[in-house]
Amino acid sequence: MTEDHYPKGRARLVSPVSCDGFVGIRRITPRGKPVRTHVRAGDIWLTGTTNGKYEFSEPTLMRACELSAVGEFSYVERERPSIKPDEVLVRIDRVGICGSDIHYYQNGENSGNVVDFPHVLGHESAGTVVEVGGDVRKVTETDRVAIEPGLPCEDCSYCADEDTYHLCEDMEYMSSPPTDGALVEYVAWPARYVYPLPESVSLREGALVEPLSVAMHACERAGVSAGDSVLVTGGGPIGQLVAEVAMARGAGQIVLTDVVEEKVRLAEERGVDFGVDVTTDDPIDVIHENIDENGVDIAIESSGAEIAIETTTDAVKRGGDIVFVGVPIDASLPTDVVGIIGDEYDFRGSFRFSNTYPDAIEGIRTGRFDVDGIVSFERGFGETQAAFDQAAEPESVKGVVRVSDEL
Asked: Helix, strand, or coil here: 244?
């Protein structure tokens, strides 16, 4: 940056100083008219005046990546959020791309939630605390943190039970309209839902605590325990992590299915006993021939695909448990009511999670869970649209955006 950026004769620029983020400058012209401008990180200058003068203020602007239309992102400047006494300001570093984000990007809606453009996506996030509210004791400035993206109302019957706050009907959830997500430089968030990361846990791993939490909750809903045989349908990020959590809970033999060979191979590399490409093999045959002719104990449907949903009752033995965590676009549960009664299947839904972040972070720290291993690629903030396009490719499991990168 040089003095050529400003009108000749108005100011003399001296002494560059370092600063993080945008900084607002209130320029006073010789006629006394204030004009607000800004400079980028690392480009802040002190000024000596000639005819006019410059006065520096605290940073007020930040970069944001908005979904401005279906299939289209735009970079804009927004006001940097201020914090309440119970909140912290987090400089976002990594954001994972979820399947729901891709639905919003491609269709402008997801599960009946319709985007009111412009809208910010991203709810799998981690970063560094740069400001702390006066009432906050849980975290301090410079802490590296994972952000739990849901804010319950804390005033309903679901919120009254600490195990069911995730069912709050007035939940504000990052990136779910109308609540903006984390593809921005800074997020103000209640400290209650921000969790410090141990030194050995990276910010990328911190961002992936969210999908890991979804998988942990699904396995808890299924009651996975030592020796259980488990079918996981879907080899996307949730399916891969469901299989890993099931292994960590002591499950016996695990089968994972998908229509993409690369995802099946990844699951096998990560420890599942049988990876089944359903375009070439029948998972029911694999189960009957290798595990139990009566079926598996538990099926966890993680894809949302209609054919996978239909497979669950064929795969599970009588008295078995079936949990649905994958969100279908347009599919229904198996409707053979007589068969469901006679075989005593237990059907359960699994929605998001509650109280999982501390255990998830500890599991990453100890090596019990490997979330880094599901990452297919990482791209910079300036390549967000390309990152979403790549994440939508069938072979991709998990994409991550580095929001901390320069545009």
From this structure: helix
